[in-house]
Amino acid sequence: MTIAGSIFLIAVGAILYFATNLRVAHVSIDTVGLILMLAGLAGLVLGFVQQGMWSRRSRREAAIEDRREPREPY
């Protein structure tokens, strides 16, 4: 799930939880909104963790390449 998708889930969940007063048989719209907000929050945290891992990997690869000494041609 992308960061934008997570923010979208949080927004839709907040709208369902705070801004609606619908009543549906056997379904609590407030609970659905809360579940969507929690899923969006979990996706947002995991998205930031994944992005941090990718940026750390690219920095590490750049540091490894910089430490290598140039080889002399034969």
Keywords, separated by commas or semicolons:
single chain; 74 residues; mainly alpha; 2 helices
Describe, in short, the structure shown.
By secondary structure, the chain is mainly alpha-helical.
Written account of the structure:
This protein is mainly alpha-helical and 74 residues long. The protein is 74% helix and 0% strand. It contains two helices and no strands. The radius of gyration is 22 Å and the shape is rod-shaped.
Q: Enumerate how many helices there are, as a single number.
A: 2
Tell me the strand percentage band: under 5%
- Average pLDDT works out at 85
**pLDDT < 50 runs, ≥5 residues:** none
Instruction: Please state the structural category.
Output: mainly alpha
Q: Round the Cα radius of gyration to an integer and report it.
A: 22 Å
Q: Fraction of residues in helices? A: over 70%
- The counted number of beta strands is 0
Measured distance between first and last alpha carbons: 50 Å
Shape, please?
rod-shaped
Main sheet record: none
- SSE order in H/E notation? HH
